[in-house]
Amino acid sequence: MEFRPCIDIHDGSVKQIVGGSLEDGKGASENYVSDRDADYYAQLYRARGLAGGHIILLDKAGTEGYDRDLEQARKALAAWPGALQVGGGITPENAEDFLDMGASHVIVTSYVFDGGKIRYDRLDEMKYVVGRRRLVLDLSVRFRDDTYYIVTDRWQKFTDEELTPALITSLSYHCDEFLVHAVNVEGTGTGVDEDLLRVLARSSGNPITYAGGVASFEDIETIREIGEGRIHFTIGSKLDLFGGHLPFEDVIDYCS
Hints:
Blueprint: E1 6-10, E2 13-17, E3 30-33, H1 38-47, E4 54-57, H2 64-79, E5 85-87, H3 95-101, E6 105-108, E7 113-114, E8 117-118, H4 120-130, E9 135-138, E10 141-144, E11 147-152, E12 157-162, H5 165-171, E13 177-181, H6 194-201, E14 208-211, H7 217-227, E15 231-234, H8 248-255
Helix pairs in contact: 1-2, 6-7
């Protein structure tokens, strides 16, 4: 189990938002807005050797906000080239640009999960452009009708795809890693989604990074126990770097 740090960027600022609150044209419910640029966090993660973290551009591609996000992402990737993953508006047309900026991997959701279904033709196209070993699939989910459904477009749109251990195992042949946000608890600090963790733990294949609701060292231990040490995790608004109470250095030591 590894601690995978994050840099979430919205309207050109490093932020922590409440999961599922981001709506086009309406902003988002914010837990924290940093007065530091994204490269500060990348340099901090580099100093502690925390490779494998992710940068997420939260604005819609093609907007002025996204352009501001992109400039922040560029700074972070230049601060630690080859170590951080990046997602948000990734397509075959721009994926190589992010790799050239210094991203280790590109993270893809909406382009592949289009029209409510997995578009395997688009998945193959992404693999052709960047290679399977530099592709991360975002399988972030929202819980509805007793089922975890994969969501896209900054977690606003439900697909028809249910997240199951079989689906995760199958998709492992098409990418290098998975990123899974538990959107119902993302940014709430109310504890991890144990049922979702059990779904992830029953899969086999690629590494998985879980995000959502981590608010204590007990939550981290729950991830370790349910995931049998195989599921990585990230912490957002409850980390002291982002205004929370969990000390960054203590989290690193806990996972050592």
